[in-house]
Amino acid sequence: MTTPGPRGGTVSEVSYEEWRARAGRLAPATAHRIGGADAPQSPGDAFDLVSPRDGEVLARVPAAGKDEVDRAVAAARRAFDEGPWPRMRPAERKAHLLRWADLVERDRAELALLVSLEMGKPIAEADGIELRAVINGLRWYAEIADKGLDEAPRTAPGSLALVTREPAGVVAAVVPWNFPLTMAVWKLGPALAAGCTAVLKPAEESPLSALRLAALADEAGLPPGVLNVVNGPGEVTGRALGEHPGVDVLAFTGSTEVGRHFLRYAADSNLKRVWLELGGKSPNIILPDAPDLDAAADTAAWGIFFNAGEMCTAPSRLLVHRDVADRVVERIVARASAMRVGDPLDPATEMGPLVSSRHRDRVLSYTDAGRAEGASLLVGGSAIDRPGHFVEPTVFGGVTPSMRIAREEIFGPVLSVLTFTDADEAVRLANDTDYGLAAAVWTSDLSAAHRISRALRAGTVWVNCYEEGDYSVPFGGVKLSGHGRDKSLHALDKYTDLKTTWIEL
Ligand code: NAD
């Protein structure tokens, strides 16, 4: 049974009590998935997974060292070099992926619960937004698996040229915890549809949902070794994948700092192709002629507090025209104050905890920096005194471009408000950043919307909206936000090689 959920979706009709009861009954699998089965762990490391909701240990999870990573890559290698997956009829690959999507839909509530428990996302969003994106993504890429994308251009008479998209080989996908399953599917969907095989390394904070996702792939009948999952710390497990000579493509989503590591690992190993989806410090420009100023303010507030601000695309720099700044900021502060912050398992919760105590402390170091550098704290700014890693929704006014809270990615519920007097100044401020993931502009002037969108250096520009998207449109960044695109047909470019075959007839 479902009921209407956030952002036009639906959520499972489950009460707070029932979610808690289900959480109590969970006994999640923790073993790596290698070659279609739970992998025995060689004696070695394991780590405690702590739930951000209450600070309690959820599970003890094996950490993959070099041996497990070797085994996982070997399984993916065998499945690619010798197995049926890249060789089967594309329609058959599509059928496998669709079966997988159906199983994810069957177990949607369980997967949402795992996500919510491990990384603290409100259950309504885990279920209604994340799982929806996962199921839609698997189906979207399943559907393109059998759409011929090869070419046979007319060349010289007496010859035939074929341009075929060949699967690139073994893909390692290293992903973050903020949308643990969506980020995985943004890589796995196109990679597997193209005929590649994969090793997924989830973040240390979100291993359980990824293991369950992979078990469902095996249940759907994907051949052994097509999808493997190894867990462990980035510096060990992620690095071993980055340096592995058996990996052909490394698809990464995470911080800019770790993205640099992956480029180095590739340079020092087999020059594997590295694709980077990195951080952001996205500007959200509100002009006085915004079609609906209240809607612009509400969306600005929703955008920065959604997923507790743990969003690469978070509109963390609000650039608002001086003439309307008071009205817009007052409304955002009211929204922040009214936000229902609490247990992520409560379907009424709007904002949950931050993912870990370490991350909470990092976010609080920015609220301290904002105060110390002279910004004015309008609301929030502190931890919430209850078990778990909760921080208040926070808004700083009077921010100047050189302050750390205007320049660095905070990845928490902290909004920095800057003001401007004309559109040129807004664009200058917006582009005054090392990042280039997303941006937005609110105006009723069609020409201004186009001019400003064109001037903004970002992978996505939203006009009179924020965080809108669809699998048919690409997503990714420029500058320190990375390169390459997830989603859409363009994602196939990451996981395929164009081969030219020239035949003299
Ligand atoms: P992170 O970079 O710390 O970790 C991401 C992944 O990299 C994890 O699986 C981690 O284990 C691994 N890793 C960490 N150190 C490593 C190392 N030295 N070598 C190899 N692997 C390593 O990022 P995070 O804290 O999990 O996520 C937050 C970051 O992700 C933010 O910067 C955010 O903007 C970014 N992000 C970007 C997008 C996007 O699509 N552009 C989406 C979500 C998150």
TrEMBL record:
Family per similarity comment: Belongs to the aldehyde dehydrogenase family.
Record flagged with keyword Nucleus: no
CDD domains assigned: ALDH_GABALDH-PuuC (cd07112)
Domain Aldehyde dehydrogenase residue range list: 45-500
Active site location: E277
Organism: Actinomadura logoneensis
Swiss-Prot/TrEMBL keywords: Oxidoreductase
MF terms (GO), sorted A to Z: oxidoreductase activity, acting on the aldehyde or oxo group of donors, NAD or NADP as acceptor
Keyword Oxidoreductase: yes
A matching Pfam family: Aldedh
InterPro entries: Ald_DH/histidinol_DH, Ald_DH_C, Ald_DH_CS_CYS, Ald_DH_CS_GLU, Ald_DH_N, Aldehyde_DH_dom
Protein name: Aldehyde dehydrogenase
